[in-house]
Amino acid sequence: MILNRTKWLDEDKQAFLDFLKAKGNPHKVAWSQNILQTPSPVLAIATKEQVGICKEIMKGNYQSFLDLQIFDFYETIALFGMILSRMKSLAEFKHYFDVYLDQMNCWAHCDLLNFPLLREEKAYYLDLSEKFYTDKRVMVRRLSLFILFKCVNEKEFLPHIFNRIKSFQDEKEYYVIMMAGWLLCECIIKHKDETLAFMENNVINKKIQNKAIQKCRESNRFTKEEKDFLWKYKVK
What we know:
Mean pLDDT: 96
Number of strands: 0
Structural class: mainly alpha
Number of domains: 2
Number of helices: 14
Order of helices and strands: HHHHHHHHHHHHHH
Helix content: 55-70%
């Protein structure tokens, strides 16, 4: 199928779906569904192949492809997010982003995202994180934290990250807690002294803090001595 089209039309939708179905792996559908925990039907197309399809679509008029809003499968929603992640224009990203927020329905739809011009437009993305953390949609709340995960290398973002983690004190949703724990673990890895001081001087959601310690102890970026030391931060 020609993917780098000059314009995608309504009548191309079914042909594209048939093209994707032919690339599916029926023997891996149940396994993929169990890992992804998505309510959408799954074709079990390899991620590498999905990325290849995305890149080929982006050689053509990818905007007209997105305008078709093909959301029939986990993979078609993921393709929408992959294309979003590769946009060079923030204005174009904004135009399609709200559509994606309404469609993403599992952790992978959140975690596949990259954010155009993140360094240059950090104020915009921090505002998104601030806006999203109270959203009723579980994956949008996860995204509030994932945006900050993309910023964790830079120490200047630590106050935003710490404030956001504190704001999830009453969070109960597993996939939000997992992301918060992952984020806190990464802060310990990248900014150990500041993060341990934060943990010592603030009350953090018990599940988030313990998940962070668990992830640190599972990581190969800590020595055995460091892992043993981190036990003191586990909340009983």
